Amino acid sequence: MTKKATQIMTNIKILSVCGSGVVSSSMIAEKMKDRLKENGYRVSTVEVNPGGVENALNGETFDFIAYTSPIHGKFDIPTINAVGFLTGFGEEEFIEEVLNTLKKLGK
Amino acid sequence: MSILTNELIFLNVECTSSDDVIKLLGNEMKKCGLVKDTYIDAVIAREIKYPTGLPTDGIKVAIPHTDNIHVLKSAIGIATLKKPVEFGIMGGDGEKLEAEIVFLLAIQDPKLQLEFLRKMTSLLCNGELLLGIKNSTTNEEIISLLSMLQN
Question: Are the C-beta atoms of residues B47 and B88 closer than 8 Å to each other?
Fold first, then answer.
């Protein structure tokens, strides 16, 4: 019997922010799950609107914030603009920024 | 009723503003009992605060939508425009773009529509498909192009 190859996946958690906390953030979240899986990350996400960011950050720990609506304020974790990721026009740049960010976080 | 229907597709329409397009599609959604009376105003208000124009590669599109409290049943309305109308760019600082196709989204529970949203996302990245939609002359053509979006 051959041994099943096991790939060690790193768990990361992303706060996905859009204007309604419904549509674009879910689109981004699903796409990040797909794309980052290829890079060895198991992604879990929470989707919120800009008003829900602070609350979410108080309640849970996230690795970074991906946003399609401008978010204001100072955050302790990195924030990454995800609009280009949504349109595919700037998708690779987004993934690169995410991977660099995760690397800096030691993940 | 499937999420994409004949009644909610409008081809080559003449609209002069983003509000016009939202009202055209939103009123049809209202007639079909898919959204509440508050939906259209909520979408228009949200568009000012959080615009949804997407600077896609090629045909520019907009995906107006709003909080799900205004939605009764998930649906998508599609309008291709005779002349592009101005939409603010999502995540931008007041920049505008000329949208040629508008997808009005009414999403009740994103968790139940993940597969649809996932397909919608891949559609937005598919310049060829967007061009096909833009050039469609019948609703059936659009429905067949978007058959991959149907659940």
Answer: yes
